[in-house]
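Researcher: Structure for this, please.
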Amino acid sequence: MLLDYRNARRMTQAELGEKIDKVPATIGAWENGRRSIFEDVRRDQYIANLNKLADALDLSREDRAYFLSAIITCNDYRSMMGVRSADSHGRG
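Model: Predicted structure, token format:
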């Protein structure tokens, strides 16, 4: 989703990264799902950084709402709350 929004604005990873103080590799990792946006910020900065991303992408109110709701995944929420994900045996 982040990749789609960035491409729609004809921005490079470097341009977006510059707007939010992240290196292009971080933007790429977020876009490819190698890392969660939550992993790269402190818990208290998470929502602020998502809003910073939405601002940098110049999202409309409707797109911003969709972006923010869709990007906060179950795993991000679990991480924010300090809950470990279950392993393949249902433990955790």
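Researcher: Any notable elements?
Model: The CA atoms of residues 84 and 90 lie 11 Å apart. Confidence is low (pLDDT under 50) at residues 85-92.
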